[in-house]
Amino acid sequence: MPALIFKQVTLQGVYIYVKNTWFQNTQSLLNESLLKIAVIKFLQP
């Protein structure tokens, strides 16, 4: 359970960091969706 919580927190943290860093000037919902998918795929074992 702690690992799952940590992974979720990490996922949110990475997503927010990458979104703020790479997509700072982008308001596109498509880009946000693609980014979320990419981060999830990257963090899955």
UniProtKB/TrEMBL annotation:
Protein name according to UniProt: Uncharacterized protein
